């Protein structure tokens, strides 16, 4: 998965080739990144990260989503009957998690810049494991809502925190593929959650007097707690930290090199105050933060089918509950493969906007097919399109935001948390797109998800135009000041 470091100036649009080539050769002799020695050191650093940091955060994110999304599979067991859920109670239980998620996320990422990730993130994982497992002990709608709200609070730190730690070690050129790998934990969790639930419901339903859905929460909570303990010994802290697995992964010289290459990868901007609160102000004042918020919120809304996918497939009348759960897996597995291909292409071509808008256009085709026909084979085929499109696009938005809003590490931490936090609004309102009275077609839901896909594509085009103008300004500054510059990725 190792990639080579590009030269300090990489042109993001063909119309500026001549100017970029001029700026590229300014002060080239002082640039050490274009040497075989530099690239060899990079490959060594990246390989070690790919063998430690990436597998561990991937496993934790897989459990993060298993513990969050298992409510969708529980619904196909006796979940609603045992808790006395009626009307929109289930929709509220799905939605309330995101309220807790939003409340905790930004403070958590601000704290993360000042604490040890190798302890903070696994401790959060251990907490959410216990909270998720406690769902098995609920007997009322009120208890379920309380547990789901608390689960959102303790799960909130992980994804933006893990992504921030990755962005402190990987350059923009390396980050898209790694983000897709991380995001595949979500995709595969959703795919295998149906398979896991099918096995538990078939083998443990009624064992020791517990319904299958209760065993589902207990066993998946136990698995994530075990992974959290292991993560404490594997996840590195920051390149300049003297704690975490970095102590035995890298020498002091290698850690200084890792920090230097991240500094060189930042878009050319004046140095700024490194306080957390100043980083928050920078993020809030940057108009691009709010475009990314709208973009990702639209993506999450379009991806609102996720918590209702087993219910959607149940409406196809393809067979028993076990068969339905098994058939939820293939669309997500294909989505994981597609997201890898999209991320690889994005890194290779150093482009982001089209790698978001094209997958969202594919998702739109899937939504249109679902609206237009009642034929089961066509609607099942459509599910492959919208799952692949939405998952691929979501992973790319995080990468684009982190590479664009990176004036300081504190700004990047606050901005990515703000983007992820406010995008959760899409997860709060999208469950109400699926009232039981609209099943099994859910026409209103597919129409709304189609509309939000259009908004996401419009945001991509607006961001590309804005960054193109910013790159032109940076090139002019580089020529005037006689220095090499690093451009925004379009």
TrEMBL record:
<feature type="transmembrane region" description="Helical">
    <location>
        <begin position="119"/>
        <end position="139"/>
    </location>
</feature>
<feature type="transmembrane region" description="Helical">
    <location>
        <begin position="181"/>
        <end position="203"/>
    </location>
</feature>
<keyword id="KW-0813">Transport</keyword>
<keyword id="KW-1133">Transmembrane helix</keyword>
<protein>
    <recommendedName>
        <fullName>Major facilitator superfamily (MFS) profile domain-containing protein</fullName>
    </recommendedName>
</protein>
<keyword id="KW-0472">Membrane</keyword>
<feature type="region of interest" description="Disordered">
    <location>
        <begin position="1"/>
        <end position="34"/>
    </location>
</feature>
<feature type="transmembrane region" description="Helical">
    <location>
        <begin position="215"/>
        <end position="235"/>
    </location>
</feature>
<dbReference type="InterPro" id="IPR036259">
    <property type="entry name" value="MFS_trans_sf"/>
</dbReference>
<dbReference type="InterPro" id="IPR020846">
    <property type="entry name" value="MFS_dom"/>
</dbReference>
<feature type="compositionally biased region" description="Basic and acidic residues">
    <location>
        <begin position="16"/>
        <end position="28"/>
    </location>
</feature>
<feature type="transmembrane region" description="Helical">
    <location>
        <begin position="356"/>
        <end position="374"/>
    </location>
</feature>
<dbReference type="InterPro" id="IPR011701">
    <property type="entry name" value="MFS"/>
</dbReference>
<dbReference type="Pfam" id="PF07690">
    <property type="entry name" value="MFS_1"/>
</dbReference>
<dbReference type="GO" id="GO:0016020">
    <property type="term" value="C:membrane"/>
</dbReference>
<feature type="transmembrane region" description="Helical">
    <location>
        <begin position="325"/>
        <end position="344"/>
    </location>
</feature>
<feature type="domain" description="Major facilitator superfamily (MFS) profile">
    <location>
        <begin position="53"/>
        <end position="468"/>
    </location>
</feature>
<keyword id="KW-0812">Transmembrane</keyword>
<feature type="transmembrane region" description="Helical">
    <location>
        <begin position="446"/>
        <end position="467"/>
    </location>
</feature>
<dbReference type="GO" id="GO:0022857">
    <property type="term" value="F:transmembrane transporter activity"/>
</dbReference>
<feature type="transmembrane region" description="Helical">
    <location>
        <begin position="145"/>
        <end position="169"/>
    </location>
</feature>
<feature type="transmembrane region" description="Helical">
    <location>
        <begin position="287"/>
        <end position="305"/>
    </location>
</feature>
